[in-house]
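We both want to read discrete structure tokens more fluently, so let's practise on a single case. Once you have written the record down, we can walk along the chain together.
***
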Amino acid sequence: MTYYITYGKFQHYLKEYYIRTGSRMQFPEMISYLKRKGLLCEGCPESTPGHKMFSHMSDDEFEKILDNMVLTITPDLQLSPYVRESSIIPTERDVFIIRHPRYTRLFLHTHNYFEINFVASGSCTFYFEKESRVLNEGEFCIIAPESRHDLSISDESIVFCMMLRKSTFNTTFFSLLSQKDLLSLFFRTILQGNSRPNYLLFFVKDTDWIKTIIHNALGECHKNDSYSNISCINWMNLLFSTLLRNYSQTLQFYNYQMGSDFSLVLQYIQHNYQTLTLSSLAEFFHYSEPHLCTLIKQNTGYSFTELIRQLRMADAVSYLINTNLKVSEIAERIGYNSADHFSRVFRNAYKMSPQEYRKTQSSPQETFIPFA
């Protein structure tokens, strides 16, 4: 049987239990407690109007609206160190967003979906594997699947938790991460790699715009029409676009072996690949060449040489399709000393010459006939 409770009442009971007993509960434990006490509703209470948009609202204004939104509860939800997306994300949804409950008990767990946490105000403690750190207002954390973690929310702080199916994240949102963008390749490697747990951490300055996006995406999660799911996905696309466009330079991540400036290494390679050598890169960032080779391979899937070639070929394809530059001019622009060398590398990658590739990508222009 399905039960219902508003955000406000659920948070009220969590806080009341903590004040009365000094103990905290996890979400499933509180649900079981509320069911035993008869505090869950069998009928769905009236919620926020479906047409409501949430722009230019203060935290307090949105909190009042959110407190009246309804959580749909499955009482048999079990507390488990491994959570499957089927038990937390509604069947008809690709994205599910909640305000993270306060006063919950710490319980490290893993799951097979992506989790994204944004600290809208206040702070929280982020526990990840064997470390912990405080996340403050404006920090935005994307947690890869199969990563052991939990959050402890400070009293009255506001943290939004976004849960995305792995299949949706890989097929829909990663289309934003261009193959040509080396930092995007790094994001994919960090978040999709199954070899070890990881997260990406951004610091957002324009919190008002991010809050507007999240508020509206959360609102879509509580609408029941045929457009709400795709609308929520579109809000999340806008969120990721904003992060990639404006906050890549703030990126940090979890790794046992390297510091948080590795994204700067990738950005440097992206902008200087035409003339860059491994020795000059190692000297610039004060790494040994063998160690730098290892880091690049582990975190992009390519060796330094392969990475440079991939970047050159990506720009070569763009020049061939979008410009009338001669092959020799393209070769010079992407860092090859001769057109012959460039052509050999290109043919090896694409099984045809640059000239042949350009012909396959060009289509004859049709004559425009008005009112045809």
About this structure: Residues 256-260 have pLDDT under 50 and may be disordered. DSSP finds 14 helices and 13 strands in the chain. The chain has two domains: 3-253, 262-361. The radius of gyration is 25 Å.
